[in-house]
Structures are given as structure tokens and as C-alpha cells.
């Protein structure tokens, strides 16, 4: 995180250039990160809801249809690795980072790598894409989700208002 603080004091153009360079290096970990998600699908310690998100992240990465198609070099892969990093960080925040580390066979610390990706990617992605990928959402109850599948006008996920995000952060900090 200290690297990000240093980047913010530099001119914007230079910050983006350095962020692109770091992201290019991080993109080399994308195949290993997708493999990690696949390994974690088999782990009984990983909650079912997280497994569903891992499966969705894998599908997002391998699917040719996503927010920024992979046909666009570099930026098309940045949104993919960002989704994977966010799903990994979600598991780390909701359970134990050691579960993630036990399944990681790539170089470096996976939690630090995911944190770096989550810090750098929003600087490189278009603001709308970054907002869509990082907005906090909550799933409804299982019965509500099934009901909303029948009635296509009801949302499956609901965006959490900014004030609720801040209140949640202050509760966990205090």
C-alpha cells in the first residue's frame, strides 16, 4: 500500500504509466489465479456462496463476453484479473487468508498480489467499469432470489448505498 501512496504524489500521467508497468507484471499471474479459484472450489472449508462467486469469476475470465472484451490487448485482461482479485480478497476478508495461501502454487504472496491488483486496476479501467466491478452488492434471501427468477422485474442483487458502506467500515474499524 505504501507504493500506492507514493504513486499519488506524482503527476497523473507518470502514475498511470507506472501503474501500467506494474499491472503488466501482475497479469502474468492471471492463469495461476484462475487455477487457484478452481482448486478452492474443491475445498470444504470454503463457503458455498464463495464457491459460487469463484465459479462466476472463472466463467467471467474465460468468457469472450465481458465488460471489456479480451480482444482489446492489456485492458481486456485488466478487468479479468480485477474480478479474480476481488473474489479472492472477499474470501480473505470473510474467512482465513491461510486457506487461500494453502492453494497458491505461484510466486509471491497471493494475498499481497490480489491486494496490489485491487489497488492498481481501478486506475487503469474506465471509471464506469471500475465502479460496476467494485460496487458492493448484497444477495437477497434464497427464497427471494428464486422468486425474482420467476419475476424478471425484481433484481437479483441490490447495490449497497455509499452511506451503508461507510457505516460498515466504521463498525469493523471500531
In short, what is this structure?
By secondary structure, this protein is mainly α. It contains ten helices and two strands.
Describe it for me?
This protein is mainly alpha-helical. The protein folds into two domains: 2-134, no CATH class; 136-174, no CATH class. The protein is built from ten helices and two strands. The protein has helices at residues 2-8, 12-27, 30-41, 48-62, 75-94, 97-103, 110-124, 127-134, 142-150, 162-173, and strands spanning 137-139, 157-159. Strands 1-2 form a two-stranded antiparallel ribbon. The chain starts with a helix and ends with a helix. The relative contact order is 0.12. The model is unreliable at 164-174 (pLDDT under 50).
Number of domains: 2
SSE ordering: HHHHHHHHEHEH
Structural class comes to mainly alpha
Q: What is the radius of gyration? A: 17 Å
Low-confidence stretches: 164-174
| Oligomeric state of the chains in view | single chain
Largest sheet: 2 strands, antiparallel
- In whole angstroms, how far apart are the ends? 21 Å
What would the average pLDDT be, to the nearest integer?
A: 77
Strand order in space, largest sheet: 1-2
Q: Helix segment count?
A: 10
Number of strands: 2
**Gross geometry:** globular
Helix content: 55-70%
Strand content: under 5%
